[in-house]
Design brief:
Elements: E1 6-9, H1 15-18, E2 26-29, H2 38-45, E3 50-53, H3 61-65, E4 72-75, H4 85-90, E5 94-96, H5 103-118, H6 121-129, E6 150-154, H7 158-171, E7 174-178, H8 185-191, E8 193-195, H9 198-204, E9 207-210, H10 224-228, E10 235-238, H11 247-256, E11 261-264, H12 275-278, E12 283-285, H13 294-311
Parallel strand pairs: 1-2, 1-3, 3-4, 4-5, 6-7, 6-9, 7-8, 9-10, 10-11, 11-12
Helix pairs in contact: 5-7
The chain binds (2R)-2,3-dihydroxypropanoic acid (DGY).
(2R)-2,3-dihydroxypropanoic acid binds near residues 77, 78 and 102.
Length: about 325
């Protein structure tokens, strides 16, 4: 076991999957869900050759500077705003994420949330559980339609395209999208999606879904000005990162009737949730669970383990680290 690379696993994944790392590495596997402080993350990275981390662990410049032997970070997740990519690159540390394996599961979740917001599913359940359902009535909990409406997608990567296909092919929706760059015709026609500018997307969407990466450039892309351009009957769904939305502005719009409802799987200060949102009836709140199917979480862990083995030059893919 001398001189085997050392790999830290920051959170419990699946034991049988993490075990595979032990064939190649000295593994420091976390057994309990842990809220690591930045100082503890830095301490764990010091002396490690690789680390499997989640969105909970911020891998910042300071921790990287102190990790002289670090060669690879495998992020268990597709979003990687928790990583200081520039600092990793400068040191030649390989960084990997888990795209593709979670695309369809996360697109499913986007639809679950969109439909829950449109059809007031969680609001209705709370109402029922409170014992307020005394008689079926014609005008109780009326929502908006999903089928045949206009679906807006902000961020048209793999997951955005999965949402577009569901909307167009499954629900007969008209699909509009905005993205940094327009997609090739073939993808557009497969998704039956039309490219529009940001303001048109805001103005025309009945259901707007956020699926774009979070960075300083996309911080609060949905602010009060953007919300004011949306239809008062529209819904907003966020399955990407909380920092994309100005939550105070969103709460004001939902309370003021300028937006019909919202569904949020991610929050700026998660796991804390803005109390203004918690106080509203017309917002669906879920605990960052977009990729949370058993099969997909297993696939994510497997891919992260494979990425680490390849990045540190072990296993069948030795010499071909993923980029
Ligand atoms: C992702 O894959 O980005 C999820 O948010 C979990 O990290």
């Amino acid at each position: 076991a001398e001189n085997r690379p050392r790999v830290w696993v920051s959170q419990p994944l699946f034991d049988d999957i993490v075990e595979r790392l032990g064939e190649y590495f000295e593994v420091d596997a976390t057994r309990e869900v842990t809220a690591w402080s930045p100082a503890q993350v830095a301490e764990k990275l010091r002396g490690a050759d690789g680390a499997l981390v989640t969105l909970n662990e911020r891998i910042g410049a300071e921790a990287i500077a102190g990790a002289a032997t670090l060669r690879a970070i495998a992020n268990v997740g597709v979003g990687y705003n928790n990583l200081d990519v520039a600092a990793l690159k400068a040191r030649g540390i390989v960084a990997t994420n888990t795209p593709d394996v979670l695309t369809e599961t996360t697109a499913d979740m986007a639809f679950a949330l969109l439909m829950a917001a449109a059809r007031r599913i969680t609001e209705g359940e709370r109402w029922l559980r409170e014992g307020r359902w005394t008689q079926w009535s014609f005008d109780t909990l009326l929502g908006g339609d999903v089928h045949g409406s206009t679906l807006g997608i902000l961020g048209m990567g793999r997951i955005g395209q999965g949402i577009a296909r569901r909307g167009a092919h499954g629900f007969g929706m008209r699909v509009l999208y905005h993205n940094r760059s327009r997609l090739p015709d073939g993808i557009e026609s497969n998704c039956r999606a039309a490219y529009v500018d940001f303001d048109t997307l805001l103005a025309e969407s009945d259901h707007l879904v956020l699926v774009l990466p979070y960075s300083p450039a996309t911080h609060h892309v949905i602010d009060s000005a953007a919300l004011a351009k949306m239809k008062p009957t529209a819904t907003l769904t966020n399955i990407a990162r909380g920092g994309l939305v100005d939550e105070d502005a969103l709460a004001d719009a939902l309370a003021g009737g300028w937006l019909s409802s919202a569904a949020l799987d991610v929050f700026e200060g998660e796991p804390a949730v803005n109390p203004k949102l918690l106080a509203l009836r017309n917002v669906v709140l879920t605990p960052h669970a977009g990729s949370a199917s058993l099969a997909t979480r297993r696939a994510m862990a497997t891919l992260a383990v494979d990425n680490m083995i390849a990045a540190l030059g072990r296993g069948p893919q030795a010499g071909n680290p993923p980029t």
